[in-house]
Input
Amino acid sequence: MAPASVPVCRGIPTYKAGEQSREPVTGRWRYYHPEQKDYATFLKTSEETGGERTLVEVEVAPGGGNDDIYGKGDEEHFEVLEGELEVHVGGEMRTLRPGEKVAVPLDTLHNFRNPTGEPTTFLVELRPGSTGFEKALKAGYGLASDGRNPLYHPYYIAVLLGWSDMRLPGVFTVVEPEGSRQGAGGEALPVGSGRIRPGCHPPHGSQPALRRLAHPD
Output
């Protein structure tokens, strides 16, 4: 449980941007995106599985969700553990409940949203694993937590798309060539913490830092 002084949104503690800590049981970092209202925890990384898969647990608050995106390099699998999740795959909307799954084929437009008044927990699995996706998620959530959503910064989004081998619809296609070029190198991005742990007070006074993400935490 979170301390009484930490605000709680239906069981999910909320923190100010830039605050961080570790998940208390596993010791793994949890990454927070304030606009998507979700926390992401890497359960298995590409390195840990020999490139077989990347497995992420996501906790999304009521009304939270992400924007439309295409995955060019990995097939994604969603599985709900708790709550209810809407997943749009191409032109179809699926409502998933605990134990239900959906696969997103390569290069298919998709997004997720929690339409309920309660938190939802689900798994996202990429096969094969993607170190670029992992690095891009950490950087993107860190930037968003410090008030610099990459969607509003063409250079940031270009680099993140290049790392993750994903693309966005519409006008964002113009940044793809730059993203591919930057993704091939170890570009540096200004990355905030974006990492928190429910159940403890994150440190005060955390500031954004310029961090090279060739080997992020």
The chain has three helices and 15 strands. The domain at 15-185 is CATH 2.60.120.10 (Jelly Rolls). The first helix runs from residue 131 to 145.
